[in-house]
Amino acid sequence: MTGLLPARVIGQPLERADGMAKVTGTATYAAEHPVPGLTHLHPVQATIARGRVSAVDTAQAEALDGVIAVLTPANAPRLASTEDPELAVLQSDEVAFRGQVIGAVVATTPEIARHAAGLVQVSYVEQPHDVALRPDRADLYAPDKVNPAFPTDTEQGDVPSALADAAVRLDQTYTTAWYHNNPMEPHATIASWDGGDLTLHDSTQGVTAVRDTVAPVLGVAPERVRVICPHVGGGFGSKGQPHVHLVLAALAAKAVGRPVRLVVTRQQMFALVGYRTPTIQRIRMGADRTGRLTAISVDVVEQTSRIKEFAEQTAVPARMMYAAPHRRTTHRLAALDVPVPSWMRAPGECPGMFGLETAVDEMAAACGLDPIEFRVRNEPERDPETGRPFSSRNLVACLREGARRFGWAHRDPTPRARREAGWLVGTGVAASTYPAGRIAGSSVTIRFGPDRRYQVETAAADLGTGTWTALRQIAADALGVDYAEVDLRIGDTALPPASVAGGSTGIASWGSAVLDAAEAFRDKFGANPSEGDEASGGMPDNPHTERYAMHAFGAQFAEVRVREDTGEIRVSRLLGVFAAGRIVNPRTARSQFIGGMTMGLSMALHEQSVLDQRFGHIVNHDLAEYHIAANADVAELEAHWIDEHDPYVNPLGTKGIGEIGIVGTAAAISNAAHHATGVRVRDLPITLDKFLS
Amino acid sequence: MDFLSPTSLAEALAAKARQPEAVPIAGGTDVMVELNFDQRRPSALLDLNRVAELSEWTVAGEHIRLGATVSYTRIIDELGTRLPGLAMAARTVGSPQIRNRGSVGGNLGAASPAGDTHPVLLATDAVVEAVSVRGTRMIPASEFYLGVKRNALAADELIAAVHLPITSAPQQFAKVGTRNAMVIAVCSVALALHPEQGRVGAALGSAAPTPRRALAAEAFLSAELGDTGQWSAPRPLPGSVVTRFGELVAQAAEPIDDVRGSAAYRRHALAVLARRTLDWAWQDYLRAGHGGE
Ligand SMILES: Cc1cc2nc3c(=O)[nH]c(=O)nc-3n(C[C@H](O)[C@H](O)[C@H](O)COP(=O)(O)OP(=O)(O)OC[C@H]3O[C@@H](n4cnc5c(N)ncnc54)[C@H](O)[C@@H]3O)c2cc1C
Predict the structure, then answer these.
(1) Which residues of B fall within a CB distance of 8 Å from A687?
(2) SS3 label, residue B211
(3) DSSP letter at B72?
(4) Is the pLDDT of residue A2 over 80?
């Protein structure tokens, strides 16, 4: 690949192709597909955090009019594979966390199912549970790798001596809270069997991945499973992999011989569909007198569930952000009697960059340097971990452009120096980063239709991110035709397979395959195809992957107001500048950036899943108590990007923008809060009482 | 579950007498949450939305008689100048949707320690009109709140209205929340000046098992203002008085640590809110030139 695909339709701020259907309510979401003979499932969840189900009395539930079946570990059909303990539902009587599914009621209406689920009487043999994450636990262990396949620990040089010799030193611990993905659309599945064929209407970030994961669990050949999902009401990673409800719906549909619908309730989501682990990050840094880092050390402690390991790669961004000859990172896990953690927008980078970017702010101050200048001084020439050059690295450009737009030049660095009518006002900055990767496995078919339009097909997903529009724009340029001449079909395993919409890899992966298919099509049929002409393509290997470090970067600026006498904190301004390769659709891209930043604001100030250690459950398991930033919490919010030409990442030059917006936001806000008040809050969320103690 | 939908107050009271366990539903912004979360499974719901008498407000002499189901939105739009403290509290409730549905009758029925109207009702000497087939009881707000989510209503009683004095004297309400809207108060304070009685009303919310008056703070400030002739010839208040008032309001609280804030934080913030509301109210009083009265 030499040059990038020339952009003609790419780069236009087109409206969402699916926008009208969504706002008029005609877009069908998973639970809305009309399926004749539908029945409804409500799970029964464990009310203990560890132990065994000793008896289940289903008599009262079964006696209820409208109840079709009550499933328990005793009578549920066996699964073909129980290798994944998260998905091995109703296969044993063990309880590994509070809220785990231990039964299910299928009934003629959702109301009856729910009522009956409450009538199921469960007895337990309870064992003492352990849900406390502490950095001093004796049983912390090093996982074999961290998500998805990074080394657990890294070490270069001699960190202890470098720290001992450093002119300026930092040794602080930063913590992030337990967070739950809360997309607007709760997880939902309709499962219907037709003989040995299974159709799943599921709300998912990847129909192909769902099929390939679930088929062996159910003991069905993948080609006999069809997964359909044209629209997703958000996922943020929690719909990236199938969770227990999907298997449960399929199992129950098999058991009752009728289609089953399962809509996970908001409260059930807090136990069943993944979450972000809390993290404890001890960060040590050393610098010389000129503000050049000599050592960076990040030791992370976080949790996983006893039954299934998920290791958030929290320290990974510290491996590539700044230059320093001596560096180390470690991850240690506590396996607890808690629900299974999973992906949540920017796993690793999001919590990791809170610690790192707050620490950098502290170091800059300790060195007497402006935090932007400090970052510029510590720019690495090559990826510090691999020694490879960056395919493009425009962090400094983002910092400078952000500073210009934000008005950083006039900032007085003294903390607690600006007061406006009882409010302390401060500004802060932090860097963002996210890897620019691709996932293999997508194919695309292009067919010339009877209406002389090009039908482009792949099982990709649009979880609100804009795939319906952006991929069609790419197809138009790849074929050299107008946007209106392209029809796109996605979200169905009846189409050619596609990789999961995760890791901000969607457009880069599917788009590469679209390009490959378009080239194949033109090679075969030229510029004047006939009806029915068809060609396919996949994602070609990228020889540059082994030669370059590929990452997107950004800089986020925050203005924060803290009421001097009560500590109430408000973010009056957020501004982000990103360098994320080529932007396919500025309108939907902007929405990704400001959505990510808003979620970062939410993480900084509001979000926190509160664990009741006595019972092992999340107390604030609904949107009334699990606060997510709402319109009134977001004042001025701007996202910009710089033109970035990266010929190495992929033939489109895109880097992925779904996650970077949440990375660094919380640090920018905590740094601004420190500038406003002189109080350094190292534990999220930043709540009002932390400014007064 | 029975759904009773009376169309007059008499019918509603008869139904409540027959089925005292029936749960009244006005705006439903508390009741529906409880039903959805299965915190409550009443055998009957008593819908008050068709009872016209409950959704009106009238002027009765020196008072406004505010029907139990008048929405927050209407209080803000229609009574903002006559019931300034209540309107201020109403503006901070939930979101536009919640303010369109929610009512003071419902806030009283729920009797949450965090309900936003309670401190205002206490500070302004509001009286709850409780009715049943047995007759009418006038219950001062200060005797209405009995415990966490417990109030003084008998099983067969409904709240018909709340009586609040019409005033041109300054009233204030202030609340600390962890975000800008849709937020349960971390703590709140209401203050009402009663120049005609030479008295100050002050109350706090979300910082004790019930909303409650800050009696010592009221007494201190009332005495201070009276002794120094401030009601007829108001002058700027000495800082020491404002500070002491804040301390006394904070002392009236019995806060707990919870997700929204620590007990220590609440005490601190109550003192701030008390000082703030007093400063604002007194500035209003000075500005209105009450000295000449
Ligand atoms: C999203 C959301 C945000 C909220 N934000 C706030 C807030 O910021 N501040 C706040 O104070 N509250 C808030 N609330 C709670 C609620 O809106 C208020 O308490 C409101 O005043 C309830 O009024 P309602 O008419 O909806 O009451 P309902 O829900 O109809 O009733 C509440 C209780 O009062 C009883 N009741 C109702 N009317 C009568 C009557 N006439 N006689 C006897 N009993 C009666 C009911 O039986 C029930 O127990 C919020 C609620 C939600 C869902």
Answers:
(1) 178, 261
(2) coil
(3) H
(4) no
What are the 10-residue block averages of pLDDT along chain B, 293 residues in total? Answer: 97 98 98 91 96 97 96 98 96 96 98 97 98 98 96 98 95 93 93 96 97 98 95 95 98 92 94 97 90 45
Full set of structural domains in chain B with CATH: 171-288 (3.30.390.50)
pLDDT tens string B154-168: 999 999 999 999 999
Mean pLDDT of A552-570: 97
Question: Reduced to 3 states, what is the DSSP secondary structure of residue B197?
Answer: helix
- How confident is the model at residue A630, as a pLDDT? 87
Q: How confident is the model at residue A1 (pLDDT cuts 50, 70, 90)?
A: very low
Domain of A123, in residue numbers: 33-128+184-234+239-272
Q: What is the pLDDT of residue B261?
A: 86
State whether B181 and A693 contact (CB < 8 Å): no
**A613-to-A272, A554, A616, B59, B83 alpha-carbon distances in Å:** 18, 38, 5, 53, 45
Which of B91, B107, B186, B204 best tests ligand 1's pocket when mutated (most atoms within 8 Å of CB)? B107
Q: Is residue B15 within a helix (H) or strand (E), and if so which, with residue range? A: helix B9-18
Q: Is residue A8 part of a domain?
A: no
Q: Does residue A137 lie in a domain region?
A: no
| Mean pLDDT value across residues A314-321 | 98
A404 and A420 belong to one structural domain: yes
Pairwise CA distance, residues B145 & B209, whole Å: 9
pTM: 0.95
Establish whether residue B25 lines the binding site of ligand 1, counting it when its CB lies within 6 angstroms of any ligand atom: yes
**CB-CB under 8 Å, A688 with B178:** yes
CA distances (Å), origin B83, targets B165, B170, B203: 8, 10, 16
Verify that A559 and A623 share a domain, yes or no.
yes
Question: Mean pLDDT over residues A439-457, rounded?
Answer: 97
Q: Interface pTM (ipTM) of the complex?
A: 0.90
CA separation for the pair A659, A236 (Å, rounded): 9
Catalytic amino acids of A?
659
Tell me the sheet residues that pair with B200. B193
Domain identity same for A421 and A449: no
Nearest to A283 by CA among A298, A295, A271: A298
pLDDT per position as a tens digit, A512-544: 999 999 999 999 999 999 999 999 999 999 999
Does B67 sit in the ligand 1 pocket, CB within 6 Å? no
DSSP code of A277?
P
Separation in Å, CA B194 to CA A543, B169, B289: 81, 7, 15
Cβ partners under 8 Å of residue B60, min gap 6: B163
Both tokens assigned to A677: 């008040």
Q: Which residue has the tokens 């190495």?
A: A648
Torsion of CA A573, A579, A583, A586, to 10 degrees: 10
Do A531 and A612 lie in a common domain?
Answer: no
How many Cβ atoms sit within 10 Å of the Cβ of residue A36? 7
3-state secondary structure at position A536: strand
pLDDT, one tens digit per residue, over A214-255 is 999 999 999 999 999 999 999 999 999 999 999 999 999 999
Q: Does residue A620 fall inside a structural domain?
A: yes
Per-residue confidence (pLDDT) for residue B191, from 0 to 100: 98
Q: Which of B8, B25, B92 to mutate to test the pocket of ligand 1 (most atoms within 8 A of CB)?
A: B25
Whether residues A561 and A668 share a domain: the answer is: yes
Residues A190, A280 within the same domain: no
Establish whether residue B115 lines the binding site of ligand 1, counting it when its CB lies within 6 angstroms of any ligand atom.
Answer: yes
| DSSP tag of A179 | B
Whether the per-residue pLDDT at A693 is higher than 80: the answer is no
pLDDT at A32: 97
User: Do residues A566 and A686 both lie within one domain?
Assistant: yes
- Same structural domain for residues A370 and A409? yes
A617 touches A553 (CB < 8 A): no
Q: What is the CATH number for A568? A: 3.30.365.10
Tell me the count of A-B CB pairs closer than 8 A.
58
Residue A288 lies in a domain: yes
